[in-house]
Amino acid sequence: MSPLDAAPASSAPRINPLQRIWLREIGMERLWLRPAPAVSRQVAAPPAVVSPQVAPVPPPVAAVAAPSAPSAVPEAAVHAAAEPAPARPGVPASILNRTGPPPRPVPKAEAKAAEPPPIPVAEAVKDANLEQLSGQVLACKACGLCQGRRHAVFGQGAQPTRWLVVGEAPGEQEDRQGQPFVGRSGQLLDAMLSAVGMSRERDVFITNVIKCRPPGNRNPKPEEIAACSPYLMRQIALLKPERILVLGRFAAQTLLGTDATIGSLRGRIHQLKTDEGAEIPVIVSYHPAYLLRSPSEKARAWQDLKLASRTL
Ligand code: URA
Ligand code: SF4
């Protein structure tokens, strides 16, 4: 017969004030004091509290502050507490059966951190073909611009392509339609291309450095450029264009990795070294949106297009 079997079956056990504090501390005060059948009380007893009838000595003070701290507990009580406890309404079995501190609830932030981290863009695009790359862009959330977009704009045109035309970022119309250069700038671009015998459908692939529209057409931030650039670099690697025509200061500076002015970058041929070791000629010209605001510069843009055609 275990010493606990000697406890009266029908009434709550007597406890001293220290034991009461300790029971309150671990949230068991009401449960313990509520009269319960002898068998339940026997198995539900907290490990450090021994029935007062058989162990009138209060638990050491340390056990109040740290219920799991080792304490002098008769072996029978430890065994009794280690046995599974019957269910009690509102008390998780993990608490009734535990012999140590309750499991710490996992905070939401930590639970989130346990999810696998997203694969960085540069890693994800490495082996993608053009179709897979397009799917990745449309689903991309690698920078904050994904939040305000209607559509990510992958690009459009001939595959394989003779020229790759690179603009800055989608504007309002492009964001609505999911296609590059479809607004007024796009109409002017089509006219410029056709002036040198090139067509959007047959000869060129048109895309942008940034695939999602920045709010209010603001300039893209460095971290957005860094997040998005691997898509353009993979497009170049897959499309293998004969020439790249890059439109506007922002796109030219990003692609060529320089902060030189557009005036100093146009009028000559640059070489873009690809990861595969190839060199692709790059021609810089004005952005069509700038030409719409400054029509007198169209003559210079025309020279740029002739330069691009000549080098073919
Ligand atoms: N301006 C750009 O740079 N790209 C577009 O697609 C449209 C306008
Ligand atoms: Fe992804 Fe580029 Fe769009 Fe940012 S701008 S969400 S990196 S596709």
Derived structural class = alpha/beta
The ordered H/E elements are HHHHHHHHHEEHHEHEHHEEHH
Largest sheet, in brief, is: 6 strands, mixed
Tell how many strands the DSSP assignment holds.
Answer: 6
Q: Using the alpha-carbon principal axes, give the shape.
A: globular
Strand content: 5-15%
The poorly predicted ranges are 1-11, 35-100
Description of the molecule:
The protein is an alpha/beta fold. The protein is built from 16 helices and 6 strands. Strand 5 and strand 6 (279-285) form a beta hairpin. It starts with 16 loop residues before the first helix and ends with a helix. Iron/sulfur cluster is lined by residues 137, 140-143, 145-146, 152, 210-212, 224, 227-228. Residues 167-171, 174, 180-181, 185, 208, 289 line the site of uracil.
Would you kindly provide a brief summary of this structure?
With 312 residues, the protein is an alpha/beta fold.
Question: How are the elements arranged and paired?
Answer:
Layout: H1 17-25, H2 29-33, H3 38-44, H4 61-65, H5 75-82, H6 93-97, H7 108-113, H8 121-124, H9 130-139, E1 156-157, E2 163-167, H10 172-177, H11 184-195, E3 204-208, H12 222-239, E4 243-247, H13 249-256, H14 262-265, E5 269-273, E6 279-285, H15 288-293, H16 298-310
Parallel strand pairs: 2-3, 2-4, 4-6
Antiparallel strand pairs: 1-3, 5-6
The structure holds uracil (URA) and iron/sulfur cluster (SF4).
Iron/sulfur cluster (SF4) is lined by residues 137, 140-143, 145-146, 152, 210-212, 224, 227-228.
Task: Output the keywords.
binds iron/sulfur cluster, 312 residues, 6-stranded mixed beta sheet, disordered N terminus, binds uracil, alpha/beta
